[in-house]
């Protein structure tokens, strides 16, 4: 099962203060738009997203089709196939992707401790 790029999406109270803090830890902007209250930061292979006012809890995020630099991968497991495999294993999907579609889609689930996991395919 190829899950794609991994990052942690953090819900933050003040995106500018959070950006300054993570820059002190060596993170640099990889993408996003601070004026829209979201940024993607990277330090070597570690990727975090900062999101102000977009969701309540931190989220583990997988991006099928991308590497850690948000570059397209040649081969990857489509999000609908990932969802199908997980459902076949009895994993409860909270928000499902349309399995008849193609291209960008997402679905979410929670681990046994209530941690949110987002699978978000951008292509």
From TrEMBL:
Keywords: Dioxygenase, Lyase, Oxidoreductase. Gene3D superfamilies: 2,3-Dihydroxybiphenyl 1,2-Dioxygenase, domain 1. InterPro entries: Glyas_Bleomycin-R_OHBP_Dase, Glyas_Fos-R_dOase_dom, VOC_core. The keyword Cell division does not apply. PROSITE patterns: VOC. Residues 4-122 form the VOC domain. Pfam families: Glyoxalase. GO terms for molecular function: dioxygenase activity; lyase activity. This is Catechol 2,3-dioxygenase-like lactoylglutathione lyase family enzyme. The lineage of its organism: Bacteria, Bacillati, Bacillota, Bacilli, Bacillales.
């Amino acid at each position: 099962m190829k899950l794609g790029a991994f990052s942690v999406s953090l819900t933050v109270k003040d995106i500018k203060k959070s950006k300054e803090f993570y820059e002190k830890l060596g993170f640099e902007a990889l993408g996003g738009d601070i004026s829209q209250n979201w940024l993607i930061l990277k330090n070597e292979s570690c990727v975090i997203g900062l999101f102000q006012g977009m969701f309540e809890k931190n989220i583990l995020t997988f991006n099928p089709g991308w590497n850690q630099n948000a570059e397209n991968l040649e081969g990857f497991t489509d999000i609908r196939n990932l969802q199908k495999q997980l459902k076949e294993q009895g994993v409860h999907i909270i928000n499902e992707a349309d399995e008849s579609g193609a291209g960008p889609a997402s679905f979410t689930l929670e681990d046994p401790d209530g941690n949110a996991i987002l699978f978000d395919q951008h292509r």
